[in-house]
TrEMBL record:
It comes from Geobacter metallireducens (strain ATCC 53774 / DSM 7210 / GS-15). Gene3D superfamilies: Restriction endonuclease-like alpha-beta roll domain. InterPro entries: Restrct_endonuc-II-like, YaeQ, YaeQ_sf. SMART domains: YaeQ. This is YaeQ family protein.
């Protein structure tokens, strides 16, 4: 019998000063049994960093052909495709052909190797933004993960400040290709 997903209630106060975005984000997010806490944290961070009004979580790991987050137009076409992790470059190239905008929050323990192997193939895609965050930042947040998540996220001058339970954590956003959307 398959293990059930774990449900997380999420509330994020987002102040993206760089883009002039100030929102209260609420979502119920399912963590697939094979998903790590670090990956869930990365998905939530991508939701905040690339926030647009209609950006929503997909079925993710359950459906291999969907991104982690997306904005779909009224005609059903994907307008904004957001990946998290270290996907194959072919997957990102294919997404860039089908979506108006594509973003990748590149993160994981093998990020340096992924950069060398895949980033050169992606640098020429005009509708792609690749950013990364320090893995230690993600790991620290994952260690504090609870089923009810309440974060205050401030993004300014290329730095993410995330307050949880009265403690503020910070890391820089490294833009690897494109510009921060």
């Amino acid at each position: 019998m398959a293990l059930p997903s774990t449900i997380y209630k999420t509330s994020i106060q987002l102040s993206d000063i760089d883009r002039g975005v100030y929102e209260s984000l609420q979502a119920t997010v399912a963590k697939h049994p094979s998903e790590t806490d670090e990956r869930l944290v990365a998905r939530l961070l991508a939701w905040a960093i690339f926030h647009e009004p209609e950006l929503s979580f997909t079925r993710g790991l359950c459906v291999g052909e969907e991104p982690d987050l997306w904005v779909k137009g009224p005609d059903g076409r994907v307008r904004f495709w957001v990946e998290v992790g270290l996907p194959e470059s072919d997957r990102i190239i294919k997404a860039s052909r089908h979506a108006e905008k594509v973003a990748l929050l590149a993160c994981g323990r093998a990020l340096a190797n992924w950069d060398q192997q895949h980033l050169p193939r992606l640098t020429g895609l005009p509708n792609l933004t690749v950013v990364s965050l320090d893995q230690a930042f993600i790991t620290t947040l994952a260690a504090r993960l609870e089923r009810s998540i309440t974060w205050s996220v401030t993004i300014t001058e290329g730095t993410v400040y995330l307050e949880v339970d009265g403690v503020t954590h910070e890391t820089g956003i490294r833009i690897k290709t494109g510009v921060l959307l």
